[in-house]
Write a structure and sequence with these properties.
Blueprint: H1 6-24, E1 33-39, H2 58-66, E2 68-70, E3 73-74, H3 80-89, H4 117-123, E4 127-132, E5 151-153, H5 192-206, E6 213-218, H6 230-244, E7 251-255, E8 258-261, H7 267-289, E9 296-302, E10 309-311, H8 332-335, E11 339-342, E12 350-352, E13 356-357, H9 361-368, H10 385-388, H11 394-398, E14 401-405, E15 416-421, E16 424-429, E17 435-439, H12 455-472
Parallel strand pairs: 1-6, 1-9, 2-12, 3-13, 4-5, 4-6
Antiparallel strand pairs: 2-11, 7-8, 8-10, 9-11, 14-15, 15-16, 16-17
Bound molecules: calcium ion (CA).
């Protein structure tokens, strides 16, 4: 609609801010704060609470017991940039023309015209802050400061840091998109995840206590490069030796030419996960110390599944079993992610098994904080507030979730789309139109294709998925990010 009727879109934006300004009259510290912790590539089996016995995550495990935990939460996409764009706008990534991770120099970026979470909260009088990985465009005009985040730290121009160690750059003489800014005073031994958390805590301490805040802490961890504090890596080397001896890491085949790690045993990756857990604990402790915890919504999730599958002979650094494959794929391992949310003043601890998605965060946070109920531009997410309050929500129970990834990926993935409705999961190849159908109730690992046995179900879901793709994708030539030869292997971001 926005592209065909720009005046209507402008009217919609004006209506949004008019609604927000009404809400502003009641703005103040009584409104809840928001802390959104977005982790990069953290898998659904990486935390102790999700079944890991190799990675140690005591702080997240303890918080999970007092939070609302979703068992069937999905990233909007199996790779970074599309999920991040969907998180900020509640729109399916293909509506935004971001259907792959954004390659340096590609010119792909989140359009300035999109209304982001940052802009919605800033317009409502919130102090807004963004730290860490952005990956939604590399120009100054693409920076979080241009999307409603007034304060930022450590935002580089690419999908990963040059290094997790100072000086956070590859070259002393030449600037690159991977350089992480703002930490020039870091000392040898400092670590990026620690510094980002310290900056977030500094923001909390220096904020105006009379106004609520919206803080997004988007860690570069646990994405490549797999680097962690040496002492912690040594701890996990010893743990690996004690548990597995010298036995080689077992692998499984997720698809022809793709190799998946079949057990968690990477010492450096495990150390990154434990360090992340320690830092989430530091942030929660700061909220307690500043007496902010009760009236702050804290959200914790990941932008895609764990990296376990790669094209070639070596697997990725983690294992998502019992979920199939990982980052880059539309199997459960690529899109099912951890999700915790808490607001102690309002919501009781519970476990929710209804499927939900990154696209639901915008309407959930906006409704929970009482900002507005705008529906313009059309958003694809659904507010989770009723579920978080312990009520049933028929609309949420009846809907389907879907994914569209029309590109090849260094994990071995070839263009595909997927749909989940209730117990059923359909995966559709976009190269040869073959489909796979799985019953997640009896086969959560997606090992038994039921498309022949349940052919009527397969036809119905395939038609539903194709209709959704046609309704949401951008049609203008070149609008889908980085369309390349699907047969060409591509580097990992
Ligand atoms: Ca990612």
């Amino acid at each position: 609609m926005g592209r065909r009727f720009p005046w209507l879109r402008r009217l919609g934006i004006a209506a949004l801010f008019a609604l927000i300004s009404v809400g502003l009259q009641g703005a103040g510290p009584s409104q809840p704060n928001v802390v959104l912790v977005l982790v990069d590539d953290l898998g659904r089996s990486d935390l102790g609470v999700d079944g890991s016995t190799f990675h140690e995550t005591p702080r997240l495990d303890a918080w999970a017991r007092s939070a609302v935990r979703f068992t069937d939460f999905y990233s909007a996409h199996p790779v970074c940039s599309p999920t991040r764009a969907a998180l900020l706008t509640s729109r399916a990534p293909q509506r935004l023309g971001i259907t792959d991770w954004i390659h340096p120099g590609s010119g792909v970026a989140l359009a300035a015209s999109e209304i982001t979470l940052g802009e919605a909260f800033q317009a409502a009088g919130y102090q807004t802050a963004y730290l860490g990985k952005w990956h939604l465009g590399e120009l100054d005009s693409d920076h979080p400061s241009q999307h409603g985040f007034a304060w930022s730290r450590g935002v580089n121009r690419a999908g990963q840091p040059a290094s997790f160690f100072p000086p956070f750059r590859n070259s002393e003489t030449r600037a690159t998109v991977w350089d992480v800014p703002d930490f020039g005073s870091a000392q040898p031994g400092d670590y990026l995840t620690d510094l980002l958390t310290s900056s977030a805590i500094s923001f909390l301490e220096a904020r105006d206590p009379q106004r609520p805040f919206f803080l997004c802490l988007a860690h570069y961890a646990v994405h490549t490069p797999i680097q962690a504090p040496p002492g912690l890596v040594e701890k996990y080397r010893a743990k690996r030796q004690a548990r597995f001896g010298d036995s080689p890491t077992p692998t499984v085949s997720a698809a022809p030419g793709a190799v998946s790690r079949a057990r968690q045993d990477d010492p450096a990756y495990a150390a990154m996960v434990e360090n992340l857990d320690t830092n989430v604990g530091r942030l929660l402790d700061a909220l307690d110390r500043l007496k902010l915890r009760d009236n702050t919504l804290v959200v914790f999730t990941s932008d895609n599944g764990g990296l376990c599958t790669l094209e070639g002979k070596s697997p990725g650094p983690t294992c998502n079993l019992p979920w199939r494959s990982g980052k880059g794929w539309n199997y459960e391992g690529g899109i099912r992610v951890p999700f915790l949310i808490s607001w102690p003043a309002r919501w009781s601890a519970r476990t929710v098994s209804l499927p939900a998605s990154t696209t639901d965060l915008y309407p959930t946070l906006v409704e929970a904080c009482g900002l507005s109920s705008n529906q313009n531009p059309p958003r694809d997410g659904h507010s989770l507030v009723r579920v978080l309050e312990g009520q049933s929500d028929p609309a949420l129970e009846q809907r389907f979730l879907a994914w569209y990834y029309p590109h090849a990926h260094g994990s071995g993935h070839r263009p595909s789309a997927a749909l989940r409705e209730g117990r059923w999961k359909l995966i559709l190849s976009l190269t040869d139109a073959r489909s796979e159908l799985y019953d997640l109730t009896t086969d959560p690992g997606e090992t038994r294709d039921q498309s022949t046995t349940y052919s009527e179900q397969e036809r119905r879901l395939r038609s539903q998925l194709q209709t959704w793709i046609e309704a949401t994708r951008v049609r203008s030539p070149g609008a889908e990010s980085v369309p390349r030869d699907p047969a060409s292997p591509r580097p990992q971001p």
